[in-house]
Amino acid sequence: MKKELIEELLKKFEEACQDVEGIECWSARDMQVLLGYTKWSNFSKVVDKAKESCINSGEKETDHFATVGKMVIIGSGAERELKDIALTRYACYLVAQNGNSSKPEIAFAQTYFAVQTRKQEIIEQRLLETERVNAREKLSESEKVLSGIIFERGVNNRSFGRIRSKGDQALFGGLTTRSMKERLNVPSRRPLADFLPTLTIKAKDFAAELTSHNVIEKNLHGDKHITTEHVDNNSAIRTILLQRGVKPEDLPPEEDIKKLQRRFKNDSKKIIKALKSRK
Questions:
Q1: pLDDT tens over the chain, length 279 residues
Q2: For the purposes of burial, counting CB atoms within 10 Å of the CB of 76, is it exposed (0-12), middle (13-18) or buried (19 or more)?
Q3: Which of 221, 210, 219, 217 lies closest to 145, judged by CA?
Q4: What is the CB-side half-sphere exposure of residue 153 using CA atoms within 13 A?
Q5: Mind giving me the DSSP string for the chain?
Q6: Long-range pairs for 76-80 at CB < 8 Å and ≥24 separation?
Q7: How far is 87 from 91, CA to CA, in rounded Å?
Q8: In this structure, is the dihedral angle defined by the CA atoms of residues 100, 101, 102 and 106, taken in order, positive or negative?
Q9: Distance (Å, whole) CA 26 – CA 24
Q10: CA dist 160 to 84, 152, 176, 216, 267, Å?
Q11: Residue 213 contacts by C-beta under 8 Å, 6 or more apart in sequence?
């Protein structure tokens, strides 16, 4: 396929994209023309096959193929509403996959929507990973603040470790930090939180913040009172999670947070290098 045709099709596909309540969509009527079909009756058969593919993949058809109306001008200059379908990016990909691949427009669309869908998946995954890294850094800061508060109230480093361990035991239904590490295959010398999912990291962070707040508000001193407070806070958060159908000890482990941080750092270096090379 010639470069000129690729650029032309790319422009047409991007210009045809519409925003419907925050979701990227394409009109099936527009796609009919873009994909080189002269008759709606022929193109609608391709759309029907795409719907079947959508259902077979486990997706809900109505989430990707929404029936709408499209106003068109007829010979007399008056307008008439035609049946149309709003297609999501995934729906467009399925339509292209079920089309006649001998058409250059179909061949282009198959690649275009496959690549764009993959880009979206990568972006979504990166955002989730960034959220997890940020949550882990926030937990470290909250625990640092907590340690500073309780050290002024008769608690040393060893006691602080025991308080955190008791908190974990309350959050994970009686399982100790060591038991959770064994359960999730976490190296013994690494922090458990480096391998926890975002939800659990945020749960631990909230418990630490609650303890910091209440230690000051209740003017608590000594291991016993502060440990009780931290255990109570973790127990309360566990109760909320259980009420929502979540058992924190049963959530699967995530990728080592250190690996994510290193990958982010390397990616940043590559981006900076690429940007500099364009100057």
A1: 567 777 888 888 888 888 877 888 899 999 999 999 999 999 999 999 999 999 998 989 988 998 886 655 555 655 666 788 999 988 998 999 898 877 888 888 888 887 776 776 777 788 889 899 999 999 999 999 999 999 988 888 888 999 999 999 999 999 999 999 999 999 999 999 999 999 999 999 999 999 999 999 999 998 999 999 999 999 999 999 999 999 999 999 999 999 998 988 887 677 666 644 543
A2: exposed
A3: 210
A4: 20
A5: --HHHHHHHHHHHHHH-EEETTEEEEEHHHHHHHTT-S-HHHHHHHHHHHHHHHHHTT--GGGTEEEEEEEEE-TTS-EEEEEEEEEEHHHHHHHHHTS-TTSHHHHHHHHHHHHHHHHHHHHHHHHHHHHHHHHHHHHHHHHHHHHHHHHTTT--HHHHHHHHHHHHHHHTTT--HHHHHHHHT--TTS-GGGGS-HHHHHHHHHHHHHHHHHHHHTT--HHHHHHHHHHHHHHHHHHHHHHTT--GGGSPP---HHHHHHHHHHHHHHHHHHHHHT-
A6: none
A7: 5
A8: positive
A9: 7
A10: 64, 12, 15, 16, 36
A11: none
Amino acid at 137: E
Residue located via tokens 């309780």: 150
65-73 and 23-27 strand pairing = unpaired
| Closest C-alpha among 145, 152, 147, 155 to residue 222 | 155
Alpha carbon distances (Å) from 199 to 69, 132, 187: 42, 9, 21
- Residue carrying structure tokens 């359960």: 183
Cα(194)–Cα(136) distance, rounded to whole angstroms?
7
From 95, 116, 82, select the one nearest 44 (Cα to Cα).
Answer: 95
* Residue 194 · residue 258 · CB < 8 Å: yes
